[in-house]
What does this fold into?
Amino acid sequence: MPDEPQPVEPLRQPETVFAEEARKRRTGMLSEFWYFLRHNKRWWVTPIVVILLLVSLLVLLGGTAAGPLIYPLF
It folds into this structure.
């Protein structure tokens, strides 16, 4: 007995797809990053992002009144 053909979904118009995506709830940057790490198995990106965040925090604090307290670290 031959396999019965599967019904094919009709193609959706791009406007419909765009409207559906626009109605979805927006996610935050951290949740999107977590989703990226989980589904793409890119765990090696995590230390790079953490180090960049720490360096940017030091640069930010270096321009404030906490600057003289940070300069001896370097």
Summary: The chain is about 60% helix and 0% strand.
